[in-house]
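quick one
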Amino acid sequence: MSEGDIRLEGLVKNYGDVVAVDGISLHVPPGEFFTMLGPSGCGKTTTLRMIAGFERPTDGQILLDGVEMSSTPPHKRRVNTVFQHYALFTHMTVAENVGFGLRYQQVGKDEAKRRVDAVMEMVQIGELGERRPSELSGGQQQRVALARALVLEPPVLLLDEPLGALDARLRLDLQVELKRIQEQLEVTFIYVTHDQDEALTMSDRVAVMKDGKIEQCDVPAKLYEEPDTAFVANFLGSANLLNVEARAAGDHCEVMLGNFTLRSNSSPEQAGVGKAMIRPEYVKLEPQGADGENRVPGMVEEVVYMGFHQDVRVRLANGDLIRATVPSDGESPEYHQGNAVAVYLRAANLRVLDDSPEKATGETADQADTAAA
Ligand code: ATP
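structure w/ adenosine-5'-triphosphate:
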């Protein structure tokens, strides 16, 4: 087995009455870029800290390459952590900071220098070796923190909002670089963030967390296109959520939106009173009177200019408000308040969501194996 295989089984962490992590099971195979995404307080950091060994689980198991680690102290675990706040040694140069951890490993001086130089080149701070941390920008300091962890060549790197303190532009640059470095080194990355764009751009798979549990775990495109719950739909991108009654109809669902009957290609197992979701970019506006399947009449209520697109808000004939993204490409029609339109909600993009509480369960290790295969 290659190194860097992480398995969590029924992981729980309670702080007194607070259930911070509520039974998480997942499998991250070697070399995967795996992200835990969720709002503040959902248990991401606590999960990461248990993997690192800074917190002891109340229940459950953590296996690294098949070996249970719960009683192994942090410095004996073959994982390293990069935090949002880099905590560099201010009295040392950049190169000394990067090489610091190697002092405690059986690494000769020449070998240490070779590794420090190589990793500094990789994170593009090769020129900065003699500077002190106080002479670096925030982005450069975070590169040093990353280099300091990578130089130890851990099979697993844990990253807790490492780009959180940086401005938006720099974050974008470093996201691309982090992904490149991760692919080059084939290290398992377990990354924590509350930033959906960051999670979608970099990750092989993402676990969306809520209240200490995994709400849904999948590859980014699947989470975005096929969210299981309203929470996931809303957390990743913007979503129109409509209150509907969904009935099973052969191999699909029939969705009652007020008096309108629409088709959804969702599985008939999703049927029930619930919510239907469609992303604004899939809502198509057509001339008033256009007919055919899944057209609902409506009236434009507001148009918000967003630069590369317009956000057109339309009151549907059943009373619901729906948002449509119309590109500002000079070819799409211009819409104004009061325009009568037909709103086309394509069956393939209209998704019935199951929001029963029991749906929001953690992923089992078997499911994770299937996803990773
Ligand atoms: P954030 O994005 O804000 O860091 P998070 O998803 O990482 O949030 P955690 O820090 O894991 O969330 O916290 C999960 C829950 O556990 C929260 O309700 C938090 O208040 C609680 N918690 C975390 N650490 C402790 C602690 N040492 N003592 C008591 N409660 C804690």
